[in-house]
């Protein structure tokens, strides 16, 4: 096993025996073989594009398979066995189409060299055989010739997984982008080539960041088309007196269908983690049983799910080993999986998912145990931010706002993440804080107060809603008559955890954003030389002490 995909890699080096996330060696091997197989599929998918051959179902499958490998999404060996088999079958189908088209056009058979990833065939679908094959394709640090190139290409693979997750979220709302699928094939093909340089790999990463911007825009458009604009909303942290269902993850369509199916049943719906953004969408305001937000970010789920008492739906990611007292109440859906955990099947065309099993179970459950009281604010996506633009512009011009901090990203287990709570507390009162993602659970219950009636903390939503912050800052650049985006009085301090954060980092690089702080640790897959290169090109840096970082950020560093 060799996995350094996420911020929790053991000692910030590598998980090599078992995953800190709970990933077992067998699952890690299967994920490695799935990536190997998807690269093989991408080889023919990319080549087939030259002949206008595309298969929408294969494009959708590819993104789902890539999403399944994002940290904390799926731990079920059986799911990976099925995905590997399907990847190879789809690759063979594309190969047949490509070879026929090539022969027809060139009047001779295709004879270029074919990467081993595109040649692998299995005899039978067997978990044992797939694990064994997977073990043979695991990264071997001892055989890496060029640590710099390897690391930057690994970064690309992780960003592609993050990009694919955005595509899957958008697809759930019937939004697709062929260019995005085609880019994924192109980028995966790039990693199969010999002779790549660090410069060309970095350029492909930046292109991936551009696609990340396009994917976040697509998802935002789909969310607002289906659920209306986010509106500034107060969300309560306490509990009501009826049994509830808790939803964690990102999928708004799942929440909508659950709300529809529980309306009038006496069951309340609570949000957990990044699902908190549901409270802000105008389409959900009519559901009186959307009760509140329960608990904190994903890493606290084992203690908090135990206290919830009712069923829990994990819609898109962030599942952990369950404790006994809620194991029979947890359900996965979409690409999420855990061996033995009940799975809600995908919706059939024109139909909703069937949540009746959760609803019937919820009716037999106690009410949730109170974890916290108080309230937090959500809903400052681009629509609400645009309304604040004149006031924020004026406050910057007259010195009432000195600086804006984009304090966004993912939460995680490391105790060093207390930095984000302490940083939020230490920021001067004349700073505005823009956030997105679940890192906000580190500070969103603090009393930030107001500047000239503008809330000092503005939560744009989920990690992908960083696009709202970017759109707002682009408008602010215009209203302040600044020539360059980097002239804005803005610092970016992003907490990373998994592959969605990597696509966000690359999205910011693709906009040439400078002085990005990434923490609590820098990615383990970047070599010292790559970190130096990124520091030179983008002034990328890790976090320092709270005191030093506050001073540096106020100075625009
Ligand atoms: Fe370790 Fe992260 Fe890989 Fe899990 S995903 S095995 S925690 S590096």
Top keywords for this entry?
single chain, 557 residues, alpha/beta, Substrate Binding Domain Of Dnak, Chain:A, Domain 2, Rossmann fold, 6-stranded parallel beta sheet, 5-stranded parallel beta sheet, 45% helix, globular, binds iron/sulfur cluster
Q: Would you kindly provide a written description of the structure presented here, covering whatever features stand out?
A:
The protein is globular. With 557 residues, the chain is of the alpha/beta class. Helix 1 (25-49) crosses helix 4 and helix 13 crosses helix 17 (546-554). It has helices at residues 25-49, 56-68, 77-106, 127-137, 147-171, 178-192, 198-227, 252-262, 301-308, 324-327, 356-363, 382-397, 418-426, 466-479, 499-510, 528-538, 546-554, and strands spanning 233-236, 244-248, 268-272, 290-293, 312-314, 330-333, 342-344, 375-378, 403-409, 431-435, 450-451, 454-455, 457-459, 490-495, 516-519. It has 17 helices and 15 strands. Strand 9, helix 13 (418-426) and strand 10 (431-435) form a beta-alpha-beta unit. Helices cover 45% and strands 11% of the residues. The structure holds iron/sulfur cluster. Residues 3-6, 8-9, 15, 19-21, 23, 71 line the site of iron/sulfur cluster.
């Amino acid at each position: 096993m060799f996995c350094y995909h996420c911020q929790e890699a053991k000692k910030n080096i590598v998980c090599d025996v078992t995953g800190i996330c709970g990933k077992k060696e067998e699952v890690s091997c299967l994920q490695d073989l799935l990536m190997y197989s998807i690269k093989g599929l991408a080889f023919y998918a990319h080549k087939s594009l030259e002949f206008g051959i595309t298969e929408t179902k294969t494009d959708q499958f590819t993104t789902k398979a890539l999403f399944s490998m994002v940290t904390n999404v799926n731990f079920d060996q059986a799911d990976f066995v099925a995905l590997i088999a399907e990847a190879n079958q789809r690759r063979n189908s594309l190969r047949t189409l490509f070879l026929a088209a090539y022969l027809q056009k060139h009047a001779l058979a295709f004879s270029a060299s074919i990467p081993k990833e595109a040649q692998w065939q299995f005899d039978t679908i067997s978990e044992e055989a797939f694990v064994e094959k997977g073990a043979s394709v695991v990264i071997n640090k001892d055989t890496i010739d060029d640590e710099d190139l390897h690391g930057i290409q690994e970064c690309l693979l992780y960003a592609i997984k993050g990009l694919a997750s955005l595509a899957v979220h958008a697809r759930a709302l019937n939004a697709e982008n062929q260019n995005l699928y085609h880019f994924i094939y192109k980028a995966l093909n790039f990693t199969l080539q010999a002779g790549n340089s660090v410069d060309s790999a970095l350029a492909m990463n930046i292109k991936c960041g551009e696609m990340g911007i396009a994917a976040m825009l697509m998802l935002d458009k789909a969310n607002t088309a289906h659920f209306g604009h986010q509106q500034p909303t107060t969300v309560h942290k306490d509990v009501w007196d009826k049994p509830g269902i808790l939803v964690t993850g990102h999928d708004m369509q799942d929440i909508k269908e659950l709300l529809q199916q529980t309306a009038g049943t006496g069951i309340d719906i609570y949000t957990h983690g990044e699902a908190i953004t549901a409270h802000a969408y105008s389409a959900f305001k009519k559901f009186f049983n959307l009760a509140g937000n329960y608990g904190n970010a994903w890493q606290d789920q084992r203690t908090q799910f135990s206290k919830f008492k009712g069923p829990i739906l994990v819609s898109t990611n962030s599942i952990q080993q369950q404790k006994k007292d809620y194991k029979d109440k947890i359900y996965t859906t979409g690409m999420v999986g855990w061996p033995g955990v009940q799975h809600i099947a995908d919706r059939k065309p024109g139909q909703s998912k069937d949540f009746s099993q959760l609803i019937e179970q919820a009716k037999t459950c106690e009410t949730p145990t109170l974890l916290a009281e108080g309230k937090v604010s959500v809903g400052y996506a681009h629509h609400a931010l645009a309304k604040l633009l004149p006031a924020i512009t004026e406050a910057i011009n007259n010195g009432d706002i000195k600086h804006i901090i984009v304090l966004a990203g993912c939460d995680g287990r490391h105790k060093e993440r207390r930095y984000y709570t302490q940083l939020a507390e230490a920021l001067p009162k004349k700073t505005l804080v823009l956030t997105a993602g679940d890192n906000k659970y580190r500070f969103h219950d603090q009393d930030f107060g107001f500047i000239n009636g503008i809330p000092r903390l503005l939560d744009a939503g989920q990690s992908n809603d960083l696009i709202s912050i970017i759109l707002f800052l682009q408008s602010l650049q215009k209203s302040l008559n600044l020539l360059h985006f980097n002239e804005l009085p803005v610092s970016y301090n992003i907490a990373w955890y998994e592959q969605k954060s990597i696509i966000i980092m690359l999205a910011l690089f693709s906009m040439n954003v400078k002085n990005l702080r990434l923490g609590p640790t820098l990615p383990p897959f970047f070599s010292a030389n790559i970190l130096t290169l990124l520091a030179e090109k983008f002034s990328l840096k890790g976090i320092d002490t709270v005191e030093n970082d506050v001073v540096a950020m106020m100075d625009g560093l």
